[in-house]
Amino acid sequence: MKAGTIVLNVLLLAIWIVVVWVSFLPAWRMYVLGRKGVKSDAECVGHARGQVGKVFAVYEFADATGSRHRLTVVNGSSVRTGDRHDVVYNPGKPNVAFLWPVSMKDVRNRVLGGTVLTLMLALTAFSISGGTL
Q1: 81 in helix, strand or coil?
Q2: How many CB atoms lie within 10 A of CB 98?
Q3: Alpha-carbon distance 23 to 8, whole Å?
């Protein structure tokens, strides 16, 4: 195997680790929070705009100790300031929170996205290395 191919495979491995971090870890967090998280009532306190014009709703909620935390969620254009929604959070890390209910469809979509990217990276590495890994 050529030195350039080894370097490229190591680079693709590093990219794969980032893909796992970005897709599978949040899916795992969503799954665990859906099962063991603590529910709290949240109120929309405003909106934020992304770089491409996407609108995010900003929710504020209190944990069991009374500390206030903020959660920013996608698809905030249909949410009005003052609207209330349930959130579920990790009692050990209240900044890890999702809107309730955490649907298994969301978890599945994140896992499928990570799986597709992983397969694409594996096929790319296989073809670049000339069919040998």
Answers
A1: coil
A2: 20
A3: 22
Q: Which amino acid is at 58?
A: V
Tokens representing residue 81 in the block:
């300031």
Quote the Cα angle for 28-33-37, to 5°.
155
Asked if 34 contacts 128 with a C-beta cutoff of 8 angstroms, the reply is: no
Q: At 87, which helix (H) or strand (E)?
A: strand 84-89
Give the integer Cα–Cα distance in Å for 90 and 79: 24
Q: What are the pLDDT digits (tens) for 13-54?
A: 788 788 777 778 778 877 888 788 899 999 999 988 877 778
pTM here? 0.61
Sequence-distant (6+) residues with CB within 8 A of 32 are 90
